[in-house]
Design goal:
homodimer, alpha+beta, Alpha-Beta Plaits, 4-stranded antiparallel sheet, about 35% helix, about 40% strand, globular, monooxygenase activity (chains A, B)
């Protein structure tokens, strides 16, 4: 995974921080399917994800409306339900407006 | 590391996404020192971090002024310089206003 190319500010970020239950129980396949489905949503700008005990997934969006539509997506609602029932000990979701950004590359 | 307890919205988040160069070169010690130093800053609310190829560190703050003060911190300026010179292939920093949050716990 690479750093998301998100274009000019302002745009929006959803920071999803989670701690998993043990075992997979279909989690890996669903996580892959959700990344693929999110990328097809209108207003999707990119995603960054890492897990090291704590998991952090940040998805980037053009607008709050795009985030709301993704939250209501039927396949995503199923994943959210399974997440609460099976996959997550706990999670926190934060909806943010990205006001400024800057980057560095040695290339 | 656990999910940060960040209190009521609004507050601010700095999403720092990075890809490391190979080798440590003092990085691990400096990363630990920076987490410790950030936690002592006025207005610091918490931090979440994971690396899995891509590294994502999200720090949370009471205000943009608190973020600006941390950016100017002398020890932090040294770390930022070494980061560009040695530790990072590339990084992106995003300054965000957290507008809403919600969480789930099975406990």
């Amino acid at each position: 995974m690479s750093i998301a190319s998100t274009g000019a500010t302002p745009y929006y970020a959803v920071i999803f921080t989670s701690i998993r239950t043990s075992g997979d129980g279909g989690y890996g396949d669903m996580a892959d399917a959700m990344l693929e489905a999110a990328a097809k949503q209108p207003g999707f700008l990119g995603v960054e994800s890492a897990r090291e005990g704590l998991g952090i997934t940040v998805s980037y969006w053009e607008s709050l409306e795009a985030i709301a539509a993704w939250k209501r997506d039927a396949e995503h609602l199923t994943a959210q339900k399974l997440g609460r029932e099976q996959w997550y000990e706990c999670y926190k979701t934060r909806i943010c407006k990205v006001e400024r950004d800057y980057d560095f590359s040695r290339l």
